[in-house]
Amino acid sequence: MTDQTEDDGYEDDDDQEAEFEMYRVQGTLREWVTRDEVQRFIAKKFKEFLLTFVNDIEYVRLINEMVLANKCSLEIDYKQFIGTHLNIAIWLADASQSVLEVMEDVAKNVVFSLHPNYKRIHQKIYVRITNLPVYDQISNIQYCGDFFFFATIFPTFFL
After folding, report:
1. Position 153 in a domain
2. How many domains does the chain have?
3. Distance (Å, whole) CA 103 – CA 89
4. Has residue 58 been placed in a domain?
């Protein structure tokens, strides 16, 4: 009699359970995203996103365009990323430095695997997050006397 456990799909259940465990933050989020296993998980998911996401934007095409333009910044649409990897997108918003470091390392590896000679031109690839839903950007807040107002809103003062 042969061992059937490999063909029963139990391995997939173990993978799903391990993935579920990655979303169970233990301690503070900033500490959690610095753990090696969590960074490997973020890297795996972000690499999958870069190589497989297809909607209005195809990131492999954007990488190719970036290389053709001799640029070193890859723009990632936050709304698309949050639609694919909700928890990691939230981690990105709340613990951005550690998550961005992982994303930039993955982006660099993906770009250099698709374009091996590009590392002679740029040694680092930057990830820029677009469409981040920020309500009040610091640059739009202005101070005038006793009032704070937003540059996009035109206040009327009555004396």
Report:
1. no
2. 1
3. 11
4. yes
